Structures are given as C-alpha cells and as structure tokens.
Amino acid sequence: METVTHGQVLARFGHALSDATRARLLLALREAPGYPAELADLLGVTRQNLSNHLACLRGCGLVVAVPEGRRTRYELADTRIRHALDDLLGLVLAVDPAACPDATDKDCC
C-alpha cells in the first residue's frame, strides 16, 4: 500500500468532491453501502457513468469494493470519511460570487 502525504490526501478528497456526481455518490455511500445498479438508479446516471466514478473514488482511496458472490457492494473505505463528510456538511461558507463570476452552483460556489 502506498503511503501518501497529508497534502496528497486532501488533493484526492478535493478531486473526488470536485465532481457533482462523485460528491452525490459519496453522500449516498455515507448513508449506507450500495450496489452499482441501485446507486446508478438513485443518482439518475448510467451504470457505465457510475462505474467510472466508482473507479475514480476507489483510485483516490475513498471507496472500497466488497465482493459478495456474483455482486459487488461499495462502501466508504474508512468510517472517518463519513465523519469528514458530516463535518464538511456542517460548515457555513461565506460565499463571494464576485470571486467566481463564471461559475454556476453545479461547478463552483
């Protein structure tokens, strides 16, 4: 297993959260583990799209795949990720729209 620095951990977390679908996927897995077909339906994305996002989250070390016979269940790699997401959701941000004028709610502030 590769050892990563604190900066690399934050960069991986940031990359995962930088995409709205991945962020929603992490929030869904925060609630409970899930199976790809069910997660795709829940998020309203194709199974291929979801598979790509799960691969990214696995690569970032945030999600693990747990084989269950012919199926694979996905869950957060560490319970502390759930706590980190809870803490992030509890933040109150002082948003300055002028600092990010070309962004929409989907891709920035």
Give the topology.
Layout: H1 6-17, H2 20-31, H3 36-43, H4 47-59, E1 63-68, E2 71-76, H5 79-89
Antiparallel strand pairs: 1-2
Helix pairs in contact: 3-4
In short:
This protein has 109 residues and is mainly α.
The CATH C-level class name: Mainly Alpha
Radius of gyration: 15 Å
Report the count of strand segments.
2
Structural class designation: mainly alpha
C-alpha end-to-end distance = 35 Å
Q: Provide the spatial order of strands within the biggest beta sheet.
A: 1-2
Number of helices: 5
Question: Any overview of this molecule?
Answer:
- There is one protein chain.
- The protein has a single domain, classed as Orthogonal Bundle (Arc Repressor Mutant, subunit A), CATH 1.10.10.
- 51% of the residues lie in helices and 11% in strands.
- It has helices at residues 6-17, 20-31, 36-43, 47-59, 79-89, and strands at 63-68, 71-76.
- It has 109 residues and is mostly helical.
- It has a two-stranded antiparallel sheet.
